[in-house]
Amino acid sequence: MRRLIPSRNLVVGAVLTAGFAGLALISFVWTPYGVTGVDIANRLKPPGGGYVLGTDQFGRDILSMVMVGARTSIAVALIAVGIGILLGVPLGLAAAARRGGVLDEVIMRANDLIFAFPSLVIAILITAIFGPSAVNAIIAIGIFNIPVFARLVRGGAIALWQRDYVLSARVAGKGAARISAEHILPNLANLLIVQGTIQFSLGILAEAGLSYVGLGAQPPVPSWGRMLAESQTLISIAPHIALFPGLAIVLTVLGLNLLGDGLRDILDPRIRKTRR
Amino acid sequence: MLRYTLRRLVSLIIALAVASVVIFVAVEIVPGDPAAYMLGINARPDTVAALQAELGLDLPVHERYLAWVGGLVQGDFGTSYTYRTPIADIIGERLWVSLPLALYALILSTLIAFPAGILAATRRGSVADMLVMGITQLGVAIPNFWFAMLMVLVFAINLRWFSAGGFAGWEHGIAPGLKSLTLPAIALALPQASILARVMRSALLDTLSEDFIRTARAKGLTRRQTLWRHALRNALIPVLTIIGLQFSFLLAGAIIIENVFFLPGLGRLVFQAISQRDLIVVESVVMLLVFAVIIVNFAVDLAYAAVDPRLRRS
Amino acid sequence: MIPHSPTKRSLIGALLLSGLALTAYAEDEVQQQTTVTPAPAPEVDPITVTVGLQLEPPHLDPTSAAAGAIDQVLYANVFEGLTRFGPDGSIRPALARSWTISEDGLSYTFTLAADVTFHDGTAMDANDVVFSLNRARAEDSVNAQKALFEDIASVWAMGETQVRVTLSKPNGNFLFNLAWGDAVIVAPESIENIKTNPVGTGPFMFSDWVQGDQIELVKYAEYWGAPAQLDIATFKFISDPTAAFAAMMAEDIDAFSGFPAPENLPQFEADPRFTVLVGSTEGETILSTNNKMPPFDNVKVREALAHAIDRQAIIDGAMFGYGTPIGTHFAPHNPDYVDLTANSTYDPELARTLLSEAGFPDGFTTTLKLPPPSYARRGGEIIAAQLRAVGIETEITNLEWAQWLEEVFRGKDYGLTIVSHTEPFDIGIYARPDYYFQYDNPVFQEKMATLNSEADPEARSALLAELQTIISEDYVNGYLFQLAALSVANVNLIGLWENAPTQATDLTSVYWDE
């Protein structure tokens, strides 16, 4: 029984994630209808008939919108996590290598400072400065991913620096940068994959929240959060247009979380027994 | 300990100074002029200039920064450009919504999470455990604003049990106030409760597998007794840490929910102030929030250091 | 100083209306309509009304901000001017009960109502009028519509209830200008705290403001004119359309003035508890086009735009059918309106041909910057789709008002934008080459100048028709529709305005019909 739960997580998570990634990929070559055309005569059609999930307030096919919206969500979240890893990992490695030094102190304090800022307010400010766009949503989400990875890597790396093979590498005269790259980083890969999956799912939620308040990808690029925002006044007339984008978000995030849990159980046997 | 405290105090002050500069610069470079916004499209340039002078916007940037920080140090948050009332008063008023909302959500999430987490941990692997884990998985995956929309549809529009938004105010009594905060609090509590239940479960499982629990069991205490007397108390530390984090998150993080239910809270105040270019309100509120988090971190660090002398070294 | 005053607008409507005001109004006409219902005895439950509004005022001084939300609460209810707008947009006497205009049109002598008191008990007399008008036109004035007062040369108190205003040049709009919410009479005694505690002369006085939620007005017992028929009026601010819908359905509020979601109106119409008021605003909703920015400096391109747009689809899609198509920048309810929609019939084929002739057979790409109202956001998506169909790609950016003012209105950094011009009689903006759509046509400017000095009503009508035709045939902007005024009310609540000639929720003659 116990052994079944993680693998079931993994399978369900992988299937859901692959499903939405697949929808996003298919949308590049095919969607049931175009997502940029407007067909007022066919607006707010309930699911069924020619439109599997119905149509929205402009008569656009919701299934097609959800498919292309998956693209937006996944791209924004993925790149934001990428920014977090690209900047956070070297910072964390550097802080660990210079543990207790000025560099460590500065990096960690800067991290604390970023954590202290209310993230949504900062995201709103960033878009107020540079204008709303998918790129700025990526930046806003990415910034708050940096300290997450920096802390994670610093913590993991500090433990590794005590290991014998690292000590012998130091004795052999290898520099801190080289040791970090050759010996520390590869051993943190599992940790990064697991955390990356979690941040990815948080990124999807963050993107949805930002575009819900109008700060993400701009029309006519479909985005799940904006679809929800636009459906809000129509919810009493056509509930279906608020239902499906929301379900898409839930299922994608759920899939990524399950995948993350499943991966952790495989990749990090030490915590298999207890965590989550 | 004194040296450590001093060192941390210095870094605290540096952090606050850096934060104030970052906030001020970020807010000042936001395009859009508060005076022009307030006077609209028919305003003449000389009128806009007159209003800028009245608001003190004609002063050089560094003077405005110093005036702002100088005021903050003395506890003066400044005067709102749009509302023309002291920002401290506005914040005070908004806190009467945001604080109870955060507390309400926290209490709800704790009330749900504790039993759920304990149940899941004690009946590990059971159907109940799987149910709790499944529901909490779903709980963290649901965007709270979407959940809020669905609740409005069901409970406000269809069943008409609650109003779809707005805040009844405390002056008519506690009940109407609480009623208008109920749906928002549930929306906020759902993901928090899910996280908390999972933390509770894993913290309990951690402690349950530790030696002292086995010792306690060996001494003849029943499962139930060990759970309540020993395990729960030890598991509470990570749980309380999470609750603390959640509270500060709820205070500022309720922006979207406050907007869905148009509650006059702190989050919506900042959101509106940004769109109205009420820059000084944005600066002061964000600074206040950052200040609160930094101070709490500082206090926690000191407390840990007092308990564990090894921490003072690094 | 800017060469063209922002509010220099067509004079005809106001001239006609002020003529009406001079002749048609007996002092007590309003009283006759409203003295039927006796004031309630004090022990009876107070008569209350709760009106929903979408926007909350930033503060409560109508004379120092452009926010329409201020007038929406206070106009006519708390503050009064010398003249006022009626529900039909006509100019009516208010604090000034009558006036005479000198032969040369340069001197106005107003006779004020007697025994008027401010809500703080102080008397309202000629000195308060002098104070208010001088404050509005002063050097350091922060009046958002300062241009309304720019022709005033001097203001004199000629006794308790007589005020003489002299103008530097004749201005047929003057009585119309004085009716604006920005021209209300305030008192030097209470001006200090006007932003939080407005003290006016109206039938309601300010009572309480729960910021972020509601403003409460109460009946002013000492009101000089016809007393209000409500004891307590509460304005509740509900910005979210869903919540507005739910609040109305639950009867938490008795009316919603300016209902934000036209898609919900059929549900109210079907419900016998409610009545839906569909009127007209002064808002010409247009696809503003940057006439100086290539390729829009080419009239063929602008003409192509006009034919690429399907107005009815926009009215249906963005406003759920509410709104009157317009073919020029003029309000259809105005007697001088000319229907020029035929100049810009929906014809994508013709649009493509015109684009080819203009040298853009494959279309082009431009920016479409959209302010927050849903007519703009929804209309923008529809227009983008329609333009794409003829080969014009648009990059949509959704902007907050502050950004829109900075980038589009002041910076003129845009190709296309959608906005509703809500000022009445504002065709004069086309005579200002520095205005944000940068239309520079000497012929139009000349005719506009002629209009401003023309007094003969028929000649003016003819000129106005010409002016409307010129901008329509020059395809200056894409003319979409006249914004509808949409309100929902309890079926027993009588007397709310149907049209919105100015932003106001006039409760002075609103009553419950039980």
3D structure, described in words:
The complex is a heterotrimer of chains A (276), B (314) and C (514). Chain A is 72% helix and 0% strand. With 276 residues, chain A is mostly helical. Chain A has one domain: MetI-like fold (Orthogonal Bundle). Chain A starts with a helix and ends in a 9-residue tail after the last helix. Chain B is mostly helical. In chain B, α1 (2-28) runs antiparallel to α13 and α6 crosses α8 (174-208). The model of chain B has no long low-confidence stretch (mean pLDDT 85). Chain C has helices at 12-24, 29-34, 68-74, 126-137, 174-178, 241-249, 265-269, 299-308, 311-319, 348-357, 374-389, 401-410, 442-453, 457-473, and strands at residues 48-53, 83-85, 91-93, 96-101, 107-112, 152-157, 162-167, 204-210, 214-219, 232-237, 255-257, 274-289, 324-325, 365-370, 393-398, 416-421, 478-490, 493-494, 511-512. Chain C is built from 14 helices and 19 strands. In chain C, strands 1, 8, 9, 10, 11, 12, 13, 14, 15, 16 and 17 form an 11-stranded mixed beta sheet that branches. Chain C has a 4-stranded antiparallel beta sheet with strand order 4-5-7-6, covered by helices on one side. In chain C, α8 (299-308) runs antiparallel to α10 (348-357), α9 runs antiparallel to α11 and α13 (442-453) runs antiparallel to α14. In chain C, a hairpin with a 4-residue loop joins β6 (152-157) and β7. Chains in contact: A-B, A-C, B-C. At the A-B interface, α3, α4, α7, α8 and α9 of A face α1, α6, α7, α8 and α11 of B.
